């Protein structure tokens, strides 16, 4: 196991009347939510995603309320947000996500420059390099609280500048990290040695400024009848324990289907997988281990950290693993968050990853934890992936934040029924060692697992689909 890699009755609000206005971006707008749609072809994927029904056939979840609102509100309270205003934030983010996805599908990717959600005005800000939105963009925006922004640099240009800047920084500081900050239309590099980072990077005819920050690394149970932490009976679901030997363990991600062959797969983190691995899980009902399937494809490079396991018995439940895409939501096992135990939390569609968006992760080591996206298009310190998303779970003492540990890798990142991504690594800040009991069938305690309460990184779900040539199953 490599160090610090996780192995592992709502109010509604009217549309803002200035949804057709065009603003210049303020350089220091507070509490923003930034979209990262990164892969070539990501816009095509999002164009095929409509507004999905919130109704589910899940036995333990009726779709009328999101059980993750509890820990999400607790996280917001730790940030000084009142519970009533926190509920407004969650409600507006849920309502505006379909609008955001439709806007992305209607936008030329060479002009797109990011989007953010302001926690104060509850409006979605959508940035492009064009001086005014198209008629189609205006039509879509009329259905929600949207303000268009005009900026100087596109996402493509900013990402290219980020790659050049991080390469220069890592020549002296291998743990340097870099990301694109869309609220400021800028590139940020965090490094202990600022001498090698250029102040500007030339991309085509544009000189893109680089903001340098001193310092490496990050800026910022017994369940219901189907499950006994961290294991669940069939049907196969995300967030549960899986292993290929007593020390090789990770968390199940999302059920998926091959685009070309129609076969069933389990999508998880790529760094979990390698040759000749047969992955298993434990079913409390039978008291024995059951095979999920063979690792068949994985990728861990600068573009992705994703992999797939071929499901050996994809027959409908109860004769096989089933074809639902559901996730196990655990009650907190550390007191940092509070949420109901839900055995079958439904996945209803793919979301865009947005800064300020509240998301939750669930996994086999530390159950369920929520936090806020703080940066997008991040190259984490010490790792090669360039398109991850950083989530902060940190809160002030004594509450602290919800932990993430080795073993949580591959687990789903979700909220309001949307699939955001797959957990790939821990925050580098606040890392400590912890004894994490593995549960059946290995009843021994694994000592000194790397953990942190500061946050985690995840692989964007839509890009994991692309690189593995699969589609996450949803209605």
Write a structural description.
It is a single chain. By secondary structure, the protein is of the alpha+beta class. The protein contains six helices and 32 strands. The strands form eight sheets. A six-stranded antiparallel beta barrel has the order 23-24-25-31-28-27. A six-stranded antiparallel sheet has the order 16-17-18-15-14-32, covered by helices on one side. Strands 1-5-4-3 form a four-stranded mixed sheet. It is globular and about 60 Å long. The relative contact order is 0.18. The N terminus is likely disordered.
The structure class reads alpha+beta
> Which stretches are poorly predicted, pLDDT < 50 over at least 5 residues?
1-63, 217-224, 333-337, 396-400
Number of helices: 6
Main beta sheet: 6 strands, antiparallel, barrel
Number of strands: 32
User: What is the averaged pLDDT score?
Assistant: 78
Output the radius of gyration.
Answer: 21 Å
Distance between the termini: 36 Å
* Helical proportion, percent range: 10-25%
